[in-house]
Amino acid sequence: SAAEKGGYDWFMRKEIYEQPQAVADTLLGRFDSDRRLTLDEIRISASELRTIDKVVIVACGTAYYAGLVAKYAIEHWTRIPCEVEIASEFRYRDPIVTSRTLVVTISQSGETADTLMAVRYAREQGAKVIAICNTNGSTIPRESDAVIYTHAGPEIGVASTKGFLTQVTACYLLGLFLAQERGTKFGDEVATVMAEMETMPAKIQEVLDGTDALLALARDLHQTESVLFLGRHAGYPVALEGALKLKEIAYLHAEGFPAGELKHGPIALVEEGIPVFVVVPPQGRDQLHDKVISNIQEVRARGAHTIVLAEEGDEEVRPYADRLISLPRASTLLQPLLATVPLQIFACEVATLLGHDVDQPRNLAKSVTVE
Ligand code: G6P
């Protein structure tokens, strides 16, 4: 009913708007009185954590994309190699998993069969398994060595939204915790990142407060046949997630690519008028920002209609953006928590305009309990 949906037309839209609270709740109470990050749920000793020589993140769907985002942060902060793998691929290829491997599973429901089978397989190999999960007492956390719960609250819409943002948040907590316990990052550095994380709920709210342009964009573009999404670094999985949302609920052909990979194939898809979303990293020390601007020019020169997501005050992108979506400022690693949100809203709006059941898309289930 409308009451259950809090006055929104869809659970998905309600859940998109709950994201500031969901992220804040996931961050809550993670520091002890000495401002040390404490993940109470991780009952693996610091000495055991110091022996870990590889992190393998295993998940399906949107949770897999959360893992792809997390890889950038975990490797950067801990200097431990981190692989991310689709759960249904993982156990069938004789993966290298030992007692020094930390397997991290991500699952909103905690019941996804492919992910559960990966947990069982990893434990048989002697690996430690940490679950990142939104559902208390579900099977995956019960069968794991430790769990970090996301506190998104129940997610009803089949297409995951607040699940994703809170999964990224929880993975970042884990990455910082590993860095702290292993000494690759120290008190102040951990506290600095945590302080920035704590500003994210308000920034996500800012994104949500400025969605009128997105609704107009959806009206203009909902008849399109195909949409491309480009990103680099942590913006690349954001592009994948933006494309997945459109496929899931709007049944539109959509693809996400690493922007730098365009010229090696995908640019052949670019034709007059095709909408191309581009996630632009913050302006900063590295060359990433400028590289993405050249990528925008490449598609625009071939007729693409560019929808550019860039941080506010980024004047360099303006000449190449047919539409500009401004994001509050954030570091490169935290930007996915902002850049994903307009893509969720766009998909929700396009699906609504096309007359689809946004909460119950055809052929999909919220939780897939068969392999
Ligand atoms: C299903 C859902 C997706 C979800 C995936 C993983 O396919 O339709 O939205 O991302 O499962 O679900 P999980 O509960 O493991 O995060």
TrEMBL record:
Record localization:
Cytoplasm
Substrates-to-products reaction catalysed: D-fructose 6-phosphate + L-glutamine = D-glucosamine 6-phosphate + L-glutamate
Q: Which UniProt keywords apply?
A: Aminotransferase, Cytoplasm, Glutamine amidotransferase, Repeat, Transferase
MF terms per GO, please? carbohydrate derivative binding; glutamine-fructose-6-phosphate transaminase (isomerizing) activity
Q: Which GO terms describe its cellular component?
A: cytosol
Q: Where is the SIS domain?
A: 45-184, 217-361
- The residues responsible for catalysis, as annotated, are K366
Descriptive protein name: Glutamine--fructose-6-phosphate aminotransferase [isomerizing]
Can you name the source organism?
Answer: Propioniciclava flava
Taxonomic classification, please? Bacteria, Bacillati, Actinomycetota, Actinomycetes, Propionibacteriales
